UniProtKB/TrEMBL annotation:
Keyword Chaperone assigned: yes
Pfam families from the UniProt entry: Nitrate_red_del
Protein name: Cytoplasmic chaperone TorD family protein
InterPro entries noted in UniProt: DMSO/NO3_reduct_chaperone, TorD-like_sf, TorD/DmsD_chaperones
Alphabetical keyword list: Chaperone
Organism: Desulfonatronospira thiodismutans ASO3-1
Amino acid sequence: MSNDNILPGSITGLDSAGRQQILQAVEHLIQVFWSRDGRKNWEELWENSISVWNGLQGVVFKGTPRIAAYLDEIQSRGQKPETLQELESVFVETFINTHGGVSAPLYHSCYHGEEQLLMQQPALEMQKRLSEAGLEPQNPGEPVDHLCLELEYLYFLMSLYLQDPDPETAAEIADFSGNFMLPWIQEFMQRIPADAPGAAFFANTAEAMQDLLQLLGRTS
């Protein structure tokens, strides 16, 4: 799946300012999707979303990304207060726990095979990458293929590349983003319902994440 709003090129063609903006976007995605109970400062995340995604126009996006247009539309309609109130409950029902099972689990393994079991091949592959990088999981007991743990590894790689734009690091960023993360994130994005303003916040954020991974997954 491609998006005509994504600029051509890859991370190797970006300057340090562009790479820093992508690093901030990855950090923001971690903040949006990491929670065991949905409790967080949604007002702050909303404001950060406006800054982060508008900042990537001209870096990742040709024009205004859909998430930024969505945030602007909600605010212009005066729907921001009630939408903010929805976010916690929508987050829990979509990603954490609800009767009959959540629609979009936050674990890579749940998109590997039809049974949607935890700790499948993606978790083993993720553990191998962490071990080879000399990293230990920051949240013991949490499966290592949780979306945010994968994003934390991507953040680690991006930080390395900012300090030293080594071709091997660029190759690992491309492989991890394009081959390991992107396929399951495309399915993850499709599973998020977007039939209400609160749910649309997550659907549009996931789409922006997909677009970001698509750019990072390129080798030229």
